[in-house]
Design brief:
The complex is a heterodimer of chains A (about 260) and B (about 170).
Chain A: H1 10-18, H2 24-29, H3 39-47, H4 52-59, H5 63-69, E1 74-81, H6 88-95, E2 101-108, E3 112-115, E4 122-129, E5 133-136, E6 143-147, H7 152-161, E7 167-174, H8 184-190, E8 207-214, H9 220-229, E9 235-241, E10 248-254
Parallel strand pairs in A: 1-2, 2-4, 3-5, 4-6, 6-7, 7-8, 8-9
Antiparallel strand pairs in A: 9-10
Chain B: E1 16-20, E2 26-30, H1 31-34, H2 38-45, E3 55-56, H3 62-80, H4 89-102, H5 107-120, H6 123-137, H7 142-148, H8 156-168
Parallel strand pairs in B: 1-3
Antiparallel strand pairs in B: 1-2
Helix pairs in contact in B: 3-5, 5-6
Classes of the chains: A alpha/beta (about 260), B mainly alpha (about 170).
Amino acid sequence: MGCVSPILNVSDWAARLDSYGGEPAAKRSNVSPSGALPDDVLMLILLHLETISEAVRTSGLSRRWRRVCTLLSELKFYLVWFQGPCELGDIVSSRCPGLCKLSLCNTHGLTTLVVRSESLLQMDLYCLYGLLQLKIDPSTLKELTLHRCFVGNNFLRLLQWFQFIHTLSIALIYSKMIFCVDTYYEQERCNFQYLMEDIKVLPNVVFLTMLVINQRHTFSASSFHVLRLCTGISRLLLVLHTSRELEVKLCLAMY
Amino acid sequence: MAAPESGDGNNGAARMVTLISSDNTRFEVEAAAASLSQTLQLTILDGGGGGGDGIPLPNVDSATLSKVLEYCIKHAPAAANGGAPNATAVDRAELERFDNEFVNIDQSVLYSLIMAAHNLEIEGLQSLVAKKVADMIKGKSPMEIRRTLGFPDPTPEEQAEMNAHMLEYGWAYE
């Protein structure tokens, strides 16, 4: 078998990125689909795009890229404004059969997230403004991060639901003080208040990360209350935000 | 810093191996550098590639192999330190500078590198070139990406598909 010429011209390169099973681009430049970049190379490129928005835009390129997008094992959404009813959960459920890790951070307008996935092992949710409903298959999920996503009782109900989580990271805002500042962000944050004593049941986690946001309140008793609920912990990371500016004053790690 | 070509002496303490490109050029490199390739590592561990034998690489031409080895030689010391946890900031900055310059190359060379890194399973290099392509794509619209990557203009059928995609995933195009 002859070797591929060492230097390919640019249109060949394009065809290799794009070609898949007789796609038009491949036909035009007479490059056989077998010369295409392997799927895992395309996936590596997509993973380096860092956000799903970028990857989804890429999937608009051709059928091949669209297919590879669905093979991704990790999806990250960062700073996304959703408009209208968003079927993010549907997209993830139906088109990402290999998805293992889903991260959402700073989304606006996402009110419902229903994920039906047999592969999803880890979900990290940070600051999902306006999220009202979250449904995931709790039997497969092993790791969960929930920071500033739910208000009071909804959050507590959610925690009771995950029986099989072994790694949990939660932010507990321990403050009764409403401090009003005029930025949108701070107003939103005031809505995520709940007290640790309200937590009655926690999943039987092994690794627990607890971020305590506190404003000059004593929190040791309630921290111990939470710890008493998790008797199987083998590693605890306790992060205390005690200043108004949410600066980390003290970080304790016990292994 | 090109890889030395077809030497035959083992003049250092480090073990040397010979790699043979698809166009029959011989490259002699330190085993530690060549071992960054997962594909080659086992062969080298088994004692292959030494003496007059050489390891043939039928999928990699000499221009690409010399580029690949340039990367491996530069990265071998850090890799030998187990990802160099105690490397100085200066060392890391130097590697980063090298990496940035290394992928500042023509697209056709970049493509050959992607394939070589994939075939030889050199993790760091795979990641480096993938990141370079990703950077070329970031923040661009599908049409701009097509132009950047040198895709031909879309057919009316492809254009319609792209438009439909844009409608369906409006949020991704914000």
